[in-house]
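It is time I had a proper look at our fold encoding. Can you supply me with one protein entry, sequence and fold together? It will help me judge whether the discrete encoding reads sensibly. Leave the record below and I will have a look:
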Amino acid sequence: RHAALASGGRGATAAVPTLVAMVVEGTNDVEASEVLGTLAMDPGCADRIMSALVDELAAPTADSSVRIRLAQALVEMPPPTARGVLKRLTHDDDRAVALIASALVGVLEEQYHS
């Protein structure tokens, strides 16, 4: 796990699956999200990361705490890419997920316009 953080921090895209798993599991999820955000500066890698995050959001095992962590990871992605996914999460069946996603959409819009 620490190797994924280190190698991802150096731009190694091979770390993406492990970093996404760390977000899902809640293991150093904030650090993993930040490294994913750095890797997402490469548009090709951003698409791969977004696809992995969206797949995890759709997984039947994604309970509310997992969806919240994934929503928080989306904030690290390029705003135009992440905003649509976060807006969909504002309609999540779980009120906590919907409220957090709504707040995160606001954060993204502030970042994008500043």
Notes: The two ends are 34 Å apart (CA to CA). Residues 95-113 form the longest helix (19 residues). Residues 2-113 form one domain. The mean pLDDT is 93.
